[in-house]
Amino acid sequence: MRILLFTTIFLSVFALLNLYIVKRFVNKLDIKPLYRKYFKLFLLVNFLGIAGYMVARQNPVIPNWLFFLLSLPVGIVFLIFCTAVIYDISKVVIDKIPVNEKRRDFFKKSLDISSLAVAGGLSARAIYEARHIETQTVDIKIKNLKRSYKIAQVSDIHIGGLIDEKFIRKLVQRVNKLQPDIVVITGDLVDISLKYAIPALEELKGLKTNYGSYFIVGNHEYFHGIEQIIKTVNGLGIKVLENENVYIGPKGEGFNLAGVYDVMGGRTGHHKPDLQKALQGRADSPTVLLAHQPRFIEEVQSGVDLMLSGHTHGGQIYPFRVLVKLVQPYLAGLYRHNENMQIYVNKGTGFWGPPMRLGASSEITDITISS
Predict the structure, then answer these.
(1) Interacting residues of 62 by C-beta distance below 8 A, sequence separation 6+
(2) Is 361:132 a contact under the CB 8 Å cutoff?
(3) Counting Cβ atoms within 10 Å, is residue 1 exposed (0-12), middle (13-18) or buried (19+)?
């Protein structure tokens, strides 16, 4: 029932976006009627692709090339919609400019051509950016830390569809090249029925570290059987931190690594984050906290030196940055939250929805913490 409701709302939203594009953009373009007809046909096929994508996400048994084609329409419609909004506003401005009609017609034709070029160019660029994962190198100073440690952080991988065992195998190889002391996976690892995710998850057994690999659940794990996901990930040799902490490094020279469940637990009524429990029994050393969503930092009053998060995707496709900032205090990168605590937000190593990113590249974070 929940999936059916989500799908209905999702398709309704994109139907409205398409309607706006047709009414306020396509119908106003100064192009031949035949070309306008082709544009509308493209939007119709694109919308059918979105519907196909929603079906394919629940039943990922189709070839990768077909899943790729079905994944693109979501991002394409969003970028065309953003272009249409800018076009709409620009059209009003041009109509208000005090110039002769000949010059005004020139501006309008230029706007038509540039808008079509921008929509196509941005879509191509977004597809390109999603195919490249950057390694982000970050140095973070932590008070009273006795020695330096290397932490490789990956987040929001979203196994499912195009994020398959081949993707994870290459990711593991890149992470291992960093020679990290620990690897942390800060949520949203699985975004599909667990039975389909097993082959990709098995590839994580190849991670090589000095002090282990660690995982906390994100909001998407709650949608796909959180208990079984936790059990499966623990079975891979990756420690799932469930409102608890472990000590990293030689005694007296290391740090506490704590992890909490995601704030989604407050909505589902189970697997709720409990910071107090997560920090119990710590050694007298600095503490690094893993919490999927940056907004959890508002729950942290003291006792944490650094928080590592994900969830935001850095906005993934640039205009989404505005929406993300409405609900998350931090978007991407390193921030000083207060005098005693810093937070780093990973932009996500995979992607959600369309295989597209714009202004927010995927990342593996190579973090060095030192005194």
Answers:
(1) 56, 70
(2) yes
(3) exposed
Nearest Cα to Cα of residue 315 among 72, 78, 13: 78
Q: Which two tokens stand for residue 30?
A: 């100064």
CA dihedral in degrees (224, 191, 217, 332; nearest 10)? -150
Query: How confident is the model over 162-191, as pLDDT tens digits?
Result: 899 999 999 999 999 999 999 999 999 999
- In degrees rounded to 5, what are phi and psi of residue 213? -115, 145
Residues paired with residue 78 on neighbouring β-strands, in sequence order: none
Give the pTM.
Answer: 0.88
Which tokens is 150 given? 């290397």
Write the pLDDT tens digit of every residue in 2-57: 677 778 888 899 999 999 999 999 998 888 889 889 999 999 999 999 998 888 87
Distances (CA, A) of 222 to 30, 184, 259, 265, 314: 48, 19, 16, 8, 22
Strands 133-141 and 362-370: parallel
**Number of other residues whose CB lies within 10 A of the CB of residue 336:** 9
Residue 332 CA to residue 312 CA, distance in Å, equals 7
pLDDT digits (tens, 9 = 90+) for 303-340: 999 999 999 999 998 778 888 988 999 999 999 999 99
| Six-digit token string for 74 | 């979501």
Pull the structure tokens for residue 175.
């992470």
Distance CA 242, CA 331 (A): 24
**Burial (0-12, 13-18, 19+ Cβ within 10 Å), 334:** middle
- Token code pair at residue 129: 């950016």
Q: What is the largest CA-CA distance in the chain?
A: 79
Q: What tens digit of pLDDT does each residue of 192-236 get? A: 889 999 999 999 999 999 999 999 999 999 999 999 999 999 999
